[in-house]
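>> Question from a student workshop board

For tomorrow's exercise we were told to take the sequence and the ligand below, predict the bound structure, and bring the output to class. My setup keeps failing. Could a helper post the expected result so I can at least see what it should look like? The ligand is adenosine-5'-diphosphate.
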Amino acid sequence: MPIEVKNISYIYMENTPYEKKALNNVSLTINEGEFVAIAGHTGSGKSTLMQHFNGLLNPTKGEVFIDGIDINKKKDKKTLNARRSVGMVFQYPEQQLFEESIFADIAFGPRNFGCSEDEVKQRVKEAMDFVELDYEEYKDKSPFLLSGGQMRRVAIAGIIALKPKYLVLDEPTAGLDPRLKQNLLQKVKKLHQKEKMTIIMVSHNMDDIALLADKVAIMRQGKLMIYGEPREVFTHKDVIEQAGLLEPEVMQLLRKIKEYGLDVDINALNKQEA
Ligand code: ADP
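>> Workshop helper replied:
Here is what the output should look like for this input. Compare the format with yours to find the bug.
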């Protein structure tokens, strides 16, 4: 079953002098098991869109369905469970750590979801294993004594411990050094491939997108400009440039080869690579 966004528009501070249309008639479907990347310039509406995936924002117009349930219609248990099936990692998630110990921080969500203490412990252990933080060594430590990269891992573990079916990440690698960045992207890839989580990831980096995503959505001024498989989307150089993004390096290289007169069929090469 999918997440379906149907013709949503969102206006911040409607009917005030500061009114701002942040989403303009956006529709897209994210199928179970897909890895979808959302790209676009700062202010294009990516964060606003992602906050619609779990009902944090209610669309001014349009509907959002999770597994067939309209998540903004009723406030019943079904709706709550549908919203809870979407885990959300915000930008700089380490800024949201607040408990005294790493254990308590990761346990906060599962406890809130009503898991038993045994289940909570099991989930915290698994989540810490996943982000490679040794349970015995770290469980009682304060999250605030960790390095930036470790704090981010604790924050992500807190969402993984909720076992979401859909995982939404807003630029999860922002501010990390290249090594930590690659490590985190590998973990996200593992969640997708091994745990079969559906991933929705906001990213500026088209090379990461080309490597990881099944589909890419390009946003510009609140509109969804294009949505499809990377190899198809990346051939629309004009859309990528207008959105203020850089083409993936591999595409740039192929174009250069072509410019210098070598006869390369970019589409055919892309297909071979896939
Ligand atoms: P992105 O994530 O692509 O950077 P956002 O979704 O954050 O874009 O923002 C889309 C537009 O909505 C921008 O013009 C931004 O200034 C505006 N906006 C975002 N959040 C708010 C808010 N809380 N109040 C008013 N305007 C906002």
